[in-house]
Specification:
Oligomer: homodimer
Mean pLDDT of chain A: 91
Number of helices of chain A: 14
Helix content of chain A: 25-40%
Radius of gyration of chain A: 26 Å
Shape of chain A: globular
Structural class of chain A: alpha/beta
Largest sheet of chain A: 6 strands, mixed
Number of strands of chain A: 17
Strand content of chain A: 25-35%
Strand order of the largest sheet of chain A: 2-1-3-8-7-6
Chain lengths: 409, 409
């Protein structure tokens, strides 16, 4: 079964909005043994019709996103009706639902919402519980076309609850493809390949992929054999060891929160250069409140003194970006929070603030723990790249990894 | 001049990685009057060749990203050479540069990096200052094909410094298209359309677009007439007023930091449910250290008491998620930081923690300022949607908007 995704919306081609639909849909399809063969992004307008025609010539299932809204650049309904030469029917019940949606929110619906109640004849209407635009599923001439709303918060529940069941019905005898992904911190892409690839080439039909990200690499294996994948997993784990920080869809913060929770350890953070990113990432994980107690964003010198008890003398002698300040920040955070582990970060995110001695990208990471009743602090020095967002991400990632490694001990 | 983008990499179709190249390239091309007509994502493998053939039949310029790495799934060089029937030459100087790249980082290069020194004959080599894979620019049969590395931190400087100058040479007599985007908080997509569209329809050839995001809408106008766009801007500003929080590429946090900086006001944050996201967003902006003094992530009850002076009685009587706690958090943050403005947020991010009385999604936002020497706090109540990330984003967005509106007064 060939599958293509067509994402419509000039905003996607104009750089305003990132396409998150593609990743979402592919993650949902893989457990059914299905993969997306191709994806295209099209501007609002007649190009959608051409692309639909091309995709229908190759694929059995098309997911078409966007263009179902009430505004003048929303053309999907019209294009679909025109392409298959079927009329658009006005559905009074859908119109009622849309009006109720507005009424529930104490909003006045504009007249234009009426077009969202138009349905190409023969299409199944997919209910939208999180917006006004219903989705559409048209099965014609052996092809399956799913039209889905553009906003992710509307598309995702619709996909999960209505599209996936329909798709499952189309693939009764699924040979599930299984995917394993390991996330590796601190080794380059070519190094990871050199370490594992020869050993993995022995498994027939196994797909091996690498994806480089700033400071890290994803290693991805896809196979239809559970046995091969288990054997490969053992090889990967033995070869890459603790450089693997997560597998499959897990994020570093998820790993840290779960590990801390299972070990009943609590965490505090004292951030300067990362500006709250470590705390933000930890608190993205449901259940973070069991392990994360508190965090400080001590951006000014005075706040490092007031909140964490960093010595004025330390700041004067060594500077805010120093091994000594990082150590005092972590120690202060541990004492004030009474957490089991405290992480500190202080560095120069740039673009300004660097000097010949301390260049932009320099960062000190401190990790404080109670060892035999004594506050013990380890500090490491790292240099990360630009721009600012990448620097913050990499510093936070390595900070979280320090916590992870401490929790593993 | 027709332009298409081909993004290669199975990781893009498997949901591991978001495609950020498309947005980046389109933003860079628009000032030259150029727009991307179509984009496609292709898995590593022979589909790239088919897609290249199709795109070349329609477009004059192709940007092909990814597949230039040293690993076995990197096929762009081979496909290009095969497609145009040209040999691959080994460039010893490129090989030297790659080896130097590894040596500078005290890493041992694997043998596989040798393939990155292979260049299709006649192609211009684009230097990669941030990685090992050089880019390629092939001008054949009236078509321009740019092959660029997959990692954004390698692609972006290469695009800026080497690709854009080449593209500029291809469009000497540019009729620049101008784009204006306004970001609107607190009004729905159809409401914004109803308010502005009739007034904007008078401008011939002006393209009007809308893009809905959680809790907000982007309004986009594109025109080749500077005069029309200026007149339209006045209409938009008069109609939407202070609901417009940013224009063009600006983010809410950028607007807040610039506004605070120009008004010489300082900011502190006391976050519970947003877990540091407000501080993180503010500190993403270069120069944030001039206005952002410090932030607290008071996730536990005890931390609200210790760090911000919230009364035990308040927490016991009204709960951590209450108007009263939000007010004390903001007031405490203002006093302890001696900032001009302090923002507090306390709410229920979910999925757990809700009750019949206080449902998941409830949040209180407090804003404290000194007015005539007295700490004055205003608290508002909001309800935001799920999932957790969207809740955090919307709460942070409205919190930053409160600061913005306070700074406008």
């Amino acid at each position: 079964m060939k599958i293509e995704v067509l994402n419509t919306g000039s905003e996607l081609l104009l750089g305003q909005v990132l396409n998150t639909h593609l990743g979402y849909i592919s993650e949902k399809l893989l457990p059914l043994g299905l993969r997306i063969d191709r994806q295209a992004t099209l501007p609002d307008g007649p190009a959608i019709r051409d692309a639909l025609e091309e995709s229908l010539s190759r694929a059995d299932v098309i997911f078409l996103t966007g263009g179902l809204g009430p505004t003048s650049d929303d053309l999907t309904r019209d294009i679909l009706a025109d392409f298959f030469q079927i009329p658009l029917d006005f559905h009074a019940d859908i119109h009622e639902q849309i009006l109720a949606y507005f009424a529930n929110r104490k909003l006045t619906p504009p007249d234009s919402v009426r077009v969202q109640a138009l349905v190409p004849r023969g299409a199944v209407v997919l209910t939208n519980d999180f917006g006004t635009a219903p989705g559409l599923y048209l099965h014609r001439e052996g092809k399956h076309v799913f039209c889905l709303p553009g906003p992710p918060k509307e598309l995702r529940p619709m996909f999960e609850n209505q599209v996936l069941p329909a798709i499952r019905g189309l693939v009764p005898d699924v040979i599930a493809l299984q995917q394993k992904i390991w996330k590796v911190l601190g080794l380059g892409e070519s190094m990871v390949q050199e370490m594992v690839e020869k050993q993995l080439r022995v498994f027939p039909g196994m797909e091996i992929g690498y994806c480089a990200r700033p400071g890290e690499v994803d290693l991805r294996l896809i196979s239809s054999s559970t046995t091969d994948l288990a054997a490969a997993e053992q090889i990967v784990r033995e070869t890459l060891g603790s450089s693997i920080y997560a597998e499959n869809g897990q994020s570093m913060e998820e790993v840290v929160v779960k590990l801390a929770s299972s070990k009943r350890q609590t965490i505090a953070t004292a951030e300067s250069c990362t500006g709250g990113l470590v705390a933000h990432r930890l608190t993205n994980i449901p259940g973070a409140s069991d392990v994360f107690l508190r965090g400080w964003v001590t951006y000014s010198d005075q706040s490092k003194i007031d909140e964490l008890g960093v010595e004025q003398l330390t700041l004067r002698t060594h500077g805010a970006v120093s091994k000594e300040t990082a150590a005092e920040m972590a120690g202060g955070a541990l004492r004030h929070s009474r957490a089991d582990i405290a992480l500190s970060l202080t560095g120069i995110a740039g673009p300004g603030g660097g000097s010949a001695e301390k260049r932009v990208g320099l960062v000190y990471l401190g990790l404080a723990r109670l060892v035999a009743g004594q506050v013990t602090v380890d500090v490491i020095e790292k240099h990360f790249g630009q721009p600012r967002e990448i620097f913050k991400h990499m510093a936070a990632q390595h900070g979280l990894d320090l916590i992870r490694r401490a929790l593993l001990k």
